[in-house]
Design brief:
The complex is a heterodimer of chains A (130) and B (415). The relative contact order of chain A is 0.20. Chain A has a 3-stranded antiparallel β-sheet with strand order 1-2-3, covered by helices on one side. Chain A is built from 5 helices and 3 strands; from the N terminus they run αβββαααα. In chain A, β2 (38-46) and β3 (53-61) form a beta hairpin. Helices cover 46% and strands 19% of the residues of chain A. In chain B, α4 (66-85) crosses α11 (286-302) and α5 runs parallel beside α6. Chain B contains 15 helices and 17 strands. Chain B is globular, with a radius of gyration of 22 Å. Chain B has a 7-stranded mixed β-sheet, sandwiched between helices. A 4-stranded antiparallel β-sheet of chain B has the order 13-14-17-16, with helices on one face. The N and C termini of chain B lie far apart (47 Å). Chain B has helices spanning 2-8, 11-16, 43-54, 66-85, 100-115, 134-143, 163-166, 190-198, 218-221, 246-251, 286-302, 304-323, 352-361, 374-380, 396-412; strands spanning 24-25, 28-29, 31-32, 94-97, 121-125, 146-150, 171-177, 202-206, 225-229, 240-244, 262-265, 270-272, 328-330, 342-347, 364-365, 367-369, 385-389. Chain B is α/β, with parallel strands linked by helices. The chains are: A alpha+beta (130), B alpha/beta (415). Chain A binds chain B through residues 1-2, 4-5, 10, 14, 35-38, 62-65, 102, 104-105, 108, and chain B through 351-354, 357-358, 360-362, 368-370, 383-384, 408-409, 412-414.
Chain lengths: 130, 415
């Protein structure tokens, strides 16, 4: 039992990084997992040229896997280029979490990435040059 | 007398019949506490189906050769066993379906669309499983039928004092769970059936969590329809039962159509076979029905009143043991005499899915989530709960294992 919820994971849950909301974010996106009620909102402020994540914060509610993996993701993407963040995939998040998850729990772990990517995607569509 | 009871209900001996209970999960002996979702299967059921597949297996009905006739005979025998199990007056009142979900859909489509019209009302309850919610929601949207709900009282029982107000002349159908799959609440069906019949409404009982666990007598209940799934009562998946009163089944149009359910077919039209064939289009899951027949034999040998007694004792012990744990909130009635074998609970500061994952590591199988009863969880102000559920093969030591597992999870998560 102890090996599954490692201290690192619990630490992220109990002391989430980049937790809260941003004032005047460029991107705000929120989604929930209706099956278990996990809910995550991500706020992003982009750098002046709009290609880099200057500031990021998440808030939400749910199980340890969903909230801790969102915290890990925030740490990973803060300061990175939008292009690099778009390249992150499922395996990257599962590697961050670092513990084996059953299929049902993988959805919890991926919620943060899903929210972040959906928010970025919508921003890029809205700000496309005609 | 007491001695005889002990002799007939020997859990250690029962466990010997269930091969899957000997399996391990994460290197720990399996503690299976999810029978409300689906039960494990005894050797007798597995063997009954295996035997058919290995010997006389042939498609039922219409075959004139011996094996087809033997398969048909075994299928008919299974129907008779199940009719006897619920005390239906004739085997023909037992319709084989895939599961209770299909039985309830059959009723919403066949009975609902044929007999209900705009402005008619259907009474449900707030604690229904989605299987007894969604088919009626769809009917309501499609036909302008109005749905009304018997509310939940604060003690986890249904507030039946609302019945006189709810049962207006527009109510044509009342449908409810005999036992709640989340709260465990046992509702005495007669308390709803009698007043519903008094205003001329028909009554459906969702017996999914009742038929596997306690004696059910459909004639005594006087319900119009009774639905349950085989896989929750030692039987295989893919087989369930819809019981109905003959005059209603006769008046209802078919649900699925095709082979095996017709009297005759021409280019211009078709006439329907008699009940039950009218509702059993296509090759039926007859091997599974035979398996369910063997399951019913197994339960009958144990005696259903003894099954109920065993589970009531486990629930009593479970309520006592779990209520000792700090931060744990049990849902549903606190009186074991009105509770089926399901204990749902929350633990302060721990999401049920985290709890479920941690218990899994201890070899303990519990279900977490909304248990297909989202409206009920909304009423309770919860998104998800953890549920431990018991059956004939569970023992008090497994309740202890659960309690210890929860305590361990609390320590690991610093709660």
């Amino acid at each position: 039992m102890e090996d599954l919820y490692r201290e690192n994971l619990l630490d992220h849950y109990e002391n989430p990084r980049h937790h809260g909301t941003l004032e005047h974010p460029d991107i705000t996106h929120e989604e929930s997992n209706p099956l278990c009620g996990d809910q995550i909102r991500v706020d992003v402020r982009l750098g002046d040229d709009g290609t880099r994540i200057a500031e990021i914060a998440f808030s939400g509610d749910g199980c340890i896997i969903s909230q801790a993996s969102a915290s890990m993701l925030m740490e990973e993407v803060a300061g990175k280029s939008v292009a690099d963040v778009q390249k992150l995939d499922r395996q990257d998040v599962l590697d961050m979490v670092g513990v084996p998850l059953t299929a049902a729990r993988v959805k919890c772990a991926l919620l943060g990435l899903k929210v972040l990517k959906a928010g970025l995607y919508q921003y890029l569509i809205d700000h496309q040059q005609p | 007398m007491v001695m005889e009871k002990v002799m007939t209900f020997d859990v250690e001996r029962i466990r010997e019949d269930f091969p899957a209970l000997k399996s391990m999960m994460h290197g720990k002996p399996l503690v299976y506490l999810d029978s409300a979702a689906s039960s494990q299967k005894p050797e007798q059921v597995i063997a009954a189906m295996d035997q058919v597949y290995r010997t006389v297996y042939a498609n039922v009905h219409r075959g004139v050769y011996t094996n087809s006739e033997v398969s048909t005979e075994l299928y008919d025998q299974a129907r008779a066993k199940i009719a006897h199990f619920i005390n239906a007056s004739t085997p023909e009142q037992v319709i084989f379906v895939r599961n209770a979900t299909e039985a309830l859909n059959l009723l919403a489509y066949s009975y609902g669309r044929h007999f209900l019209k705009e402005g008619d009302e259907v009474v449900l309850t707030q604690l229904e499983h989605h299987a007894n919610f969604v088919p009626w929601l769809v009917l309501a949207q499609e036909r302008g039928v109005k749905l009304k709900y018997i509310p939940l009282a604060s003690d986890g029982t249904l507030d039946l004092s609302t019945l006189p107000e709810l049962l207006t002349p527009r109510v044509k159908l009342v449908t409810f769970a005999h036992v709640s799959n989340v709260l465990g609440t046992i509702t005495d069906p007669r308390l709803i059936i009698e007043p519903a019949h008094a205003i001329g409404a028909r009554v459906i009982v969702d017996g999914c969590q009742a038929a596997p666990h306690m004696p059910v007598d459909v004639q005594e209940l006087d319900c119009d329809f009774y639905a349950f799934s085989g896989h929750k009562m030692l039987g295989p998946t893919g087989i369930g039962v819809l019981y109905g009163k003959p005059e209603l089944l006769d008046a209802m149009p078919p649900f699925l159509t095709g082979g095996d359910m017709i009297n005759s077919v021409s280019m211009e039209g078709a006439t329907w076979a008699d009940v039950p064939a009218k509702f059993e289009a296509g090759t039926p899951a007859f091997v599974q029905a035979i398996g369910l027949g063997a399951a019913v034999d197994y339960l009958t040998a144990l005696r259903m009143d003894a099954v109920r007694e065993h589970e009531r004792e486990l629930v009593r012990y479970g309520l006592e043991r779990l209520s000792e744990l700090s931060g744990l909130t049990l849902l549903g009635p606190t009186d074991p005499s009105i509770r089926g074998g399901a204990l749902s609970f929350t633990v302060k500061g721990i999401h049920p899915h985290d709890l479920g994952t941690l218990l899994d590591r201890e070899g303990i199988a519990v279900r977490t989530g909304h248990h297909c009863a989202q409206p009920l969880h909304t009423c309770l102000g919860l998104t998800a709960t953890a549920r431990a559920s018991f059956y004939i093969y569970n023992e008090p030591r497994e309740v202890d294992a659960l309690a210890e597992g929860i305590e361990k999870a609390k320590r690991v998560l610093h709660k």
